[in-house]
Predict the 3D structure of the following.
Amino acid sequence: MLGYGRRVTASTYHHGNLREALVSAGVEVVREHGADALALRDLARRVGVSHNAAYRHFAGRDDLLAEVAGRGAAELMGTMTRRLESVTVDDLVLRARMRLAEVGRSYVEFAVREPGLFRLAVSAIADVEASPPYLMLAEVLDDLVAVGYLAPEARRGAEIACWSGVHGFSCLAIDGTSRLDHDAALEVLLTTIDRSYGATTGQVASPLPGPAA
Amino acid sequence: MLGYGRRVTASTYHHGNLREALVSAGVEVVREHGADALALRDLARRVGVSHNAAYRHFAGRDDLLAEVAGRGAAELMGTMTRRLESVTVDDLVLRARMRLAEVGRSYVEFAVREPGLFRLAVSAIADVEASPPYLMLAEVLDDLVAVGYLAPEARRGAEIACWSGVHGFSCLAIDGTSRLDHDAALEVLLTTIDRSYGATTGQVASPLPGPAA
DNA sequence: TCCTCGAAGTTGATGGTGTCAACATGAGGG
DNA sequence: CCCTCATGTTGACACCATCAACTTCGAGGA
């Protein structure tokens, strides 16, 4: 037997599940107070184990933080994927445009909803051009070219341009003390990008439908 | 006399200049190692004063950090202003477009050159819509409308959209481990914005001149 | 069945940090 | 000339990360 599923509330010497318990406690702390507030000793206390127990499962604080960052990134991509799939429109061009906008909206909304996890996840991105958000954008942008809305000559580097826009908006919205969350501002940003891309194929910007509401 | 200009290397009991010495030491630390690495005790050591001396001039670590953030913000605005004024082109429309691009370039370049100060300065922004970068963008965008490149209907919210783009690019470029500094990517972003604004008045995007080089 | 061996958890120490409280100094105004 | 009080100092406390040495206990072989 694999030794998991230890009996509840039994204070065994061996926790049996420490690694997972620490990570999920870590996620909770980062969610509520940010990555700076994560302390190994505090986590150990919460889980009911002594300080230093964590060192049997993680090389140190940074290692645990990296694991938490992974959870955050996974959560972000999960919600983005769901939102992408929720776009159901028949017109191919409109559908592609709305998918791009929805990627941006879901990204920003996650950042605002989970600033702690968001900041940590982003700070852990090693290779920008190999990261999940980049790859998702790449797909959506390819589609935009395929349906004839974005000109192939303007395709190169579009991932970074789009990501920069929504990422910067997210940071401005959650950084510092004042919150800029005005939905209208985000729609302006998304419209700006959409208009620019339409212009590459001479299409006048028909208004982009707003959020699903 | 104002008690300043104390004699060099004289180990007086009263430093005479502690506040300034602490702040500039703080700027140096943040510049080289980031805000997280700033420790009051370390600063005191560098300045040759005992721990706790700083508490005669600052309420605590956060207070000192705020002062350093102010210095960073001032430096950022200084370089941006100089770069803005360096745009000397006769054609009014082209000049306005280049000024917008130059705001973006100088912002990103500062972030890449001084990531520690940049991050700290941005994190200290209290009211986004009253911050110096926002106000500078507002001026440039007003100009863009005045010369007939940006349509008045598309003017609203443009500060946030532009700032989001360059800010996000900056963050992606300096965050995490891998650096994305590819100049070409920034030009793509600036072109995307420029094209979008030109489209609002039906102007086809004549290529935007690259960096002064 | 028993025994051992190593993974998992514990205790303790070291050196770092921010911050409070009480004390010491000495420069400048009365 | 001396007194005052802003400016520095010393000491203490409570945290923290991390290393080293010790303890426990579960699983697998004899």
Remarks:
- Residues 3, 12-14, 39-42, 51-52, 55, 60-61 of chain A lie near DNA strand D (CB under 10 Å from a C1').
